[in-house]
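seq as requested:
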Amino acid sequence: MAPEPYVVPIVDSTAIFKDDIFKGKVLFCTGGGSGICRGMTEAMMRHGANAVILGRKFDRLTQTAKELSQATGRECLPVQVDVREPATLKEAVAKTIAKFGRIDYVICGTRHP
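struct tokens:
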């Protein structure tokens, strides 16, 4: 008789952090409108961060920002950029500083088409 396979339990890996570990911090995330970057943004917001999500599809960013803010109670600012155009990134940094006064964490998750 074969031994039963070991099943790895599903664990909420964010439970290892203090609830407010990112309180007062600001995340600047390219590609934050979808995929893994959206997930990382949500996790940081659940632990107290405010966020700026950046990408080319403003409608998606706006919807995502609304959903993340509602789910976490934190602020999420959507900013349309094209990372291939440095001027749009400079403008996004300026908007972030104007809104939150700082940038503490940067996630560069944008993929090129």
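The mean pLDDT is 90.
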